[in-house]
């Protein structure tokens, strides 16, 4: 796996660049929309594509970002009860929740694929983009979450990962 680290690192940085470009494009489109509506006083029909673009970019940004940019350590968890459990119980809980999440998404994946394929007959109102391109990111998102969940299950079974390492001073704080 270490020989693929440079390639995976490069792909990770390109995914981060893609999200940054998407956020910049959304922001500039939002500013353009303000210009058209409030400064140039043009009718809303001239700016319909901006609302559509921002909506599609937001959808892609959220799903693409979680699938390819967000690391497991970046996810915010409400783990007050979880951290109070013994290590073995946490591992069992991680394995069970990972399997449930992967099973639910894997079960829905064929129907989602059918829906995405069906939506190629429809286009968005303003930009005329086929809806299957708009919704295709969900397939990548679902597959990435399935893989991530199964990797978490494997880590829970093996007891590897930062979640299962007991700190030297469990009562200590990061700022000590």
UniProtKB/TrEMBL annotation:
It is a multi-pass membrane protein. The chain crosses the membrane at residues 20-40, 46-70, 129-151. Its main location: membrane. The keyword Metal-binding does not apply. Coiled coil: none annotated. Residues 26-158 form the Tripartite ATP-independent periplasmic transporters DctQ component domain. It is found in: Cell inner membrane. Keywords: Cell inner membrane, Cell membrane, Membrane, Transmembrane, Transmembrane helix, Transport. The complex comprises the extracytoplasmic solute receptor protein and the two transmembrane proteins. Belongs to the TRAP transporter small permease family. Part of the tripartite ATP-independent periplasmic (TRAP) transport system. This is TRAP transporter small permease protein. It comes from Pararhodobacter zhoushanensis.
């Amino acid at each position: 796996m270490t020989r693929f680290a440079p390639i995976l690192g490069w792909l990770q940085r390109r995914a981060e660049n893609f999200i940054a470009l998407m956020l910049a494009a959304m922001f500039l489109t939002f500013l353009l929309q303000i210009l058209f509506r409030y400064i140039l006083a043009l009718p809303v029909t001239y700016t319909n594509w901006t609302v559509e673009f921002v909506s599609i970019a937001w959808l892609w940004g959220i799903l693409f970002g979680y699938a390819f940019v967000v690391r497991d350590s970046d996810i915010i968890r409400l783990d007050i009860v979880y951290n109070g459990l013994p290590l073995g119980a946490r591992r069992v809980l991680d394995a069970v929740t990972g399997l449930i999440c992967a099973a639910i998404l894997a079960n829905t994946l064929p129907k989602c694929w059918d829906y995405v394929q069906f939506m190629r007959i429809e286009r968005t109102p303003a930009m005329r983009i086929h809806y299957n391109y708009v919704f295709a990111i969900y397939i990548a998102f679902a597959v990435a979450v399935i893989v991530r969940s199964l990797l978490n299950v494997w880590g829970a079974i093996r007891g590897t990962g930062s979640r299962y390492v007991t700190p030297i001073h469990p009562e200590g704080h990061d700022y000590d």
